[in-house]
Every structure is written in C-alpha cells, then in structure tokens.
Design brief:
mainly beta, five-stranded antiparallel β-sheet
C-alpha cells in the first residue's frame, strides 16, 4: 500500500461523497461494501448518460482496494466508458480520497471496472442492433426489443432457460 500523494484528475468527478461513522466496519475503516455500492452508482451514472436510458450492472470485472478509507475522507469517484459493445459497455471507476484538511493529502483508494447492459422498463436486457452511440452522440434506446420467449441474454449471446423439468417454452 502506497500512501504517495497524487493529484485529483483534471476533470469533474461523477460522484463526490464523505463517509460517516455509520459506514465503518469493526476495525474502524469504511466498509468495502459501502465503497463498492458507491462505485456502482458512479459507474451507473456514467452508463446511463451514455445509453440515454436505463442500465443494469451485469459484471464487476475487477475491483482493487488500494488504501483504507476513513470517516471524514472526501471521496471523489471518476467514471469513464472504456469499451462499448452492441448491448453492453465497460466502465472504469477510480476513487480518490482527500484527507487531512489542515494538511491536505490526496491518495487513490480504489479502482474498478464494471460492465453494464442497456435494459428496458421491465429490466429485460436489450438485444439486437447497436444500443450505444459514439461519445458525443448517444443513440436513443428502443426498449421494444427483448429476447424471444423462453430465452434470456447471457454473456456471449442468448441462452435458453432451463428448469428442473427440462426446457421451458418451446418444448
């Protein structure tokens, strides 16, 4: 663990928060789950802006806690789209803590990579044509597209649903 000071990125954070005493674990540090939840919020904000519609987290690809977080740290979450597919996008989130207001210190505390998928109002994954446009001009999402009955979206494409009694739907 390096406590080397760094500078905040020269851009607007997606989210900025200060953890409170209710967010600590038994050791007095902030719960990792609290940080994970807020990383997901920051990533989701970025994904929603790009998709111009509803999204769902489908994977946490990587999550690294680099430093413990303390009550009173001001956390800045920076989210960025790093990869766009036909129905999903990968977002990188970096979290920095501003510590010790009397003697300011900035350290990178967390970095993560998450995957989001565009969904319709019923939280069905959108499949079919391209769902995400270029950075500057996101395309509107057509929420009418859904997987065929008896099928669901899976990594790599559509898979059939299985039940204890065999295939559900077409036979």
């Amino acid at each position: 663990m390096s406590n080397q000071p760094v500078r905040l990125p020269d851009k607007q954070p997606t989210l900025r928060l200060m953890p409170m005493p209710a967010d600590v674990n038994h050791a007095g540090d902030i719960f990792g789950g609290w940080i994970m939840a807020n990383v997901d919020l920051a990533g989701g904000i970025c994904a929603i802006r790009r998709a111009r519609g509803r999204v769902a987290t489908i994977a946490v690809n990587e999550f690294l806690f680099k430093q413990p977080v303390s009550v009173g740290d001001v956390l800045s979450f920076y989210a960025e789209v790093v990869k766009v597919g036909r129905t999903s996008m990968t977002i990188t989130v970096e979290v920095y803590a501003e510590r010790h207001p009397s003697n300011p210190l900035v350290v990178k505390v967390t970095e993560a990579q998450l995957t989001y998928v565009a969904v319709d109002a019923d939280v069905h994954a959108l499949v079919g044509e391209q769902r995400f446009g270029p950075d500057e001009d996101p395309v509107p999402i057509d929420i009418a597209a859904r997987p065929p009955a008896g099928q669901r979206l899976e990594r790599g494409g559509i898979a059939e649903r299985r039940t204890r009694g065999g295939m559900r739907g077409n036979g």
